[in-house]
Amino acid sequence: MTRITRPLRVGIIGTGGIAGNHIEGYQKAEGVELVATCDVVESRAIGMKEKYGFRTHFTSWEEMVKHADLDVVSVCTPPFAHVEPAIGALEAGLHVMCEKPMALDAVQAKSMVDAWHKVRDTKGNLLSVGFQSRFGRNAQQLKRFIDAGELGEVYYVRAAYLRRRGVPAWGVFTNKALNGGGPMIDVGVHVLDLSLWLMGHPKIQSVYGASFCKFGNRPGVFNPWGAWDPAKFDVEDSAFAMIRFENGAALQLEVSWALNLPKSVTETLVCGTDGGARLEPLTLFQERHGTIIDVVVPEKATEGQGGPSEPNHHLQIVAWIESIRAGTAPLVLPEQALQVSQIVDAVYRSSETGASVAFSA
Ligand SMILES: NC(=O)c1ccc[n+]([C@@H]2O[C@H](COP(=O)([O-])OP(=O)(O)OC[C@H]3O[C@@H](n4cnc5c(N)ncnc54)[C@H](O)[C@@H]3O)[C@@H](O)[C@H]2O)c1
To answer: What domains appear along the chain, each with residue ranges and CATH number?
Structure first.
């Protein structure tokens, strides 16, 4: 594969909250031209165009894909509007970075992966999904520790993204038909993807889940991020799952937008036969010469390579552009993002039936 050296022409579909993170990442990547924005709300497309110096804007992704002569698009629309533009752009031969979750559900997500499989050999384009947590310096370092065998056999991971109160009350987040679900599909997918990657994507055996809506339909719940309409809240506000793998390992997943706990917690804890590790602050838990020890990686250790303050989103986009230039697979593979959607679907299904979902995908 010959390295692409010419400028890569970028378009953004959906110019709301997250789009700016993609655009600033593209600004940090070398040889990228910001060409077109697209939003069904024209004032937003124009606003982003003017803020970041894009050349043109559209109100239809079909028109943008047809006329803007692009190489790459970021799909930054809400989940209900991921699949159509992503597939349309893939079929037009563009490289597609789609925001998380890949789609509303696993059936839609699979249709995106299938569409990519149909075109990738002839068009050579890449598809990836916005699971930027993998690009964090601590995550990268922890992965190196794990892959080097520092933890021995990893058999248990606890992934938690628990907010005591933190319901995104804006946009489509609390609408099942438009967002696909609540905290599980919003923030749970991040810690789930990160955990699966750290574990080396072992084959999934079964998923047992329980989800709750205990605050969403109540009026007047304290929420630092504003009020929502309790009559229209139809997603879960917390969810919990145990995922078992064919290699015997287990992953416990806990997510909430509202839960009566002492304080909000984001934690990835990895336990292996020779050591454990916590992601933030990056710490190894080991045993040496008759005692237990904690090894803390200082923040300074990650300086000088982008630095700890560099947003993961920017690191992700810079790596994405490098994959396109080099013609190499992106870190987040489409099939891995599909697996996240399959697990989320299984958590919801298990919660409904009360039984664990056997996994054959
Ligand atoms: N990776 C992360 O950490 C992270 C953080 C926040 C949001 N997200 C994800 O990013 C996506 C967008 O979230 P957001 O918070 O930016 O939403 P948002 O509502 O702020 O912005 C979405 C924009 O898409 C536009 N849009 C909707 N349908 C469209 C269509 N068919 N064509 C063109 N534009 C369309 C809307 O008008 C809106 O301006 C979601 O999938 C969300 O889950 C990811």
So the answer is: 8-130+317-331 (3.40.50.720), 133-309+338-358 (3.30.360.10)
